[in-house]
UniProtKB/TrEMBL annotation, chains A, B:
The keyword Lyase applies. SUPFAM superfamilies: PSTPO5379-like. Belongs to the D-glutamate cyclase family. Transmembrane segments: none annotated. The lineage of its organism: Bacteria, Bacillati, Actinomycetota, Actinomycetes, Micrococcales. This is Putative hydro-lyase BKA07_001787. Residues 1-20 are annotated as: Disordered. Coiled coil: none annotated. Its EC number is 4.2.1.-. One of its GO terms (molecular function) is lyase activity. It comes from the Bacteria. Keywords: Lyase.
């Protein structure tokens, strides 16, 4: 395999091409080794508040790219188009989810000043976990990762506030420390876990009923491990009600050409 | 010495008090172990561009705090007042330096929507260099650190662009590697050097004529070592000409209560 700064044999571009042509499944496990990103786009008038919210909450909102108003091609993925290269989008009016779509071209036409934020996604480090022999239960089961709202408030910024959202991976107890060690090296894609075990302590009452994604598969001896999640801005949109926003659908990410190593410490 | 999260025996508050009462010298060497910060404040209409410029240029512009429009008390220094607690300010109109002042209360009165950015300063890690036995020539000579414009362009953001500014410390050749190692641990205050030796390669023709601060003291066997500098936004203000801006005067920083360890990796 020829590996260079534009990704492993162009697997990023290939994956985006498939998605642009209509593939709509979650992206966990796709294009391993390349950075995947969450999308939140808001009108220019709300862009400072959103950028400040991300800057003040770097664990759930590690910014990997911010596009100028109206732009749709990320420098992390030359030739990409944010309007078509994500498997699913959520459209929000005044903080209320209005619809889920798979092509956002029309959205950008009616909202030409949207400022797009790409936020690192923990799918990025899953390949590192797999390489270390740590099972990714949701991948093995062909499911989306389970995600939960917590009772932990993010630090507000201007008009934007909201609670932390986390993703959960059940990890065999003897491998939890190794999972922490591996993911700590990737602060730009959420880094080390924010919580290990004891879901109730962060306001999660029922692991089997995630707020986003699919129910988890938990094996005997697994410990639930929680990472800060890039769906957090969607909870903030619900809590803060900007007049308009468009996001990715949870689990359906933007795949860049950027090798994860770029963001490894 | 009693050390807690609010600083060593309140040395931050004591230093700010002295400055508020009129002390106007450069802050290198003051309140060792506490984070010092550069100031750039712009009208709310320019705040997104400035925040994005900082986010895209984290080496010269590592953000340690952003204040809401009109706010003047940083969470990094409870009880502080940005209008009075910096030894010197520069006032900019349309990118042109208009005046240097020591009290900015009137500025905030006439520009009530200013958004203030505090950007990490390399003075923060000087105490770590001293502890390692590395001489800080400008401190020893009682001078301000020399700073230079370079020919390296920053990544633009919206209406803001400009060239990188660096600070320079002459380091004995056998200690250069150690200086890199120590400062690399502090990415929030510019981190490792951006250039070592060969000033001409980054567009610096004459080390004895810095663009900001005082002429350097260079001993035999010293190598010039360059760190990204928080004066970079001032060069961007000159190049980009926002209608108004206020900054600190180079070398005269805002002293926080935050121990440098908070930002050590």
């Amino acid at each position: 395999m020829n590996r260079d700064r534009t990704g492993r044999s162009g697997t990023g571009a290939v994956a985006r091409e498939r998605i642009r042509a209509g593939a709509a499944e979650p992206t966990s496990g796709l294009a391993p080794g390349l950075v995947q990103a969450n999308l939140i786009a808001v009108p220019a008038d709300w862009a400072f508040d959103m950028l400040l919210f991300a800057q003040r909450n770097p664990k759930p909102c590690p910014i990997v790219d911010v596009l100028e108003p109206g732009q749709v091609e990320s420098i992390l993925a030359p030739g990409s188009d944010l309007r078509t290269d994500i498997p699913g989008y959520r459209v929000w009016n005044n903080g209320v989810l209005q619809e889920e779509i798979t092509d956002a071209t029309e959205v950008w036409r009616t909202h030409p000043d949207l400022v797009s934020f790409l936020i690192g996604c923990s799918f990025t480090f899953e390949s590192g976990l797999v390489e270390a022999g740590i099972p990714i239960r949701h991948q093995e089961a062909g499911r989306n990762v389970p995600m939960y709202r917590t009772s932990t408030a993010c630090r507000p910024a201007g008009r934007i506030s909201g609670d932390l959202v986390v993703s959960m991976r059940p990890i065999p107890a003897h491998q939890v420390a190794e999972a922490v060690r591996i993911t700590d090296r990737f602060p730009a894609v959420h880094g080390a876990p924010v919580h290990i075990g004891e879901p109730a302590q962060i306001g999660i009452d029922d692991l089997d009923s995630p707020d986003f994604g699919d129910a988890p598969v938990i094996a005997d001896g697994d410990i639930p491990v929680f990472w800060a999640c890039g769906v957090t801005p969607q909870a903030a949109v619900q809590a803060s009600a900007p007049p308009f926003a468009i996001t990715h659908s949870p689990g359906k990410m933007f795949i860049t050409d950027e090798p994860e190593d770029t963001f490894r410490q």
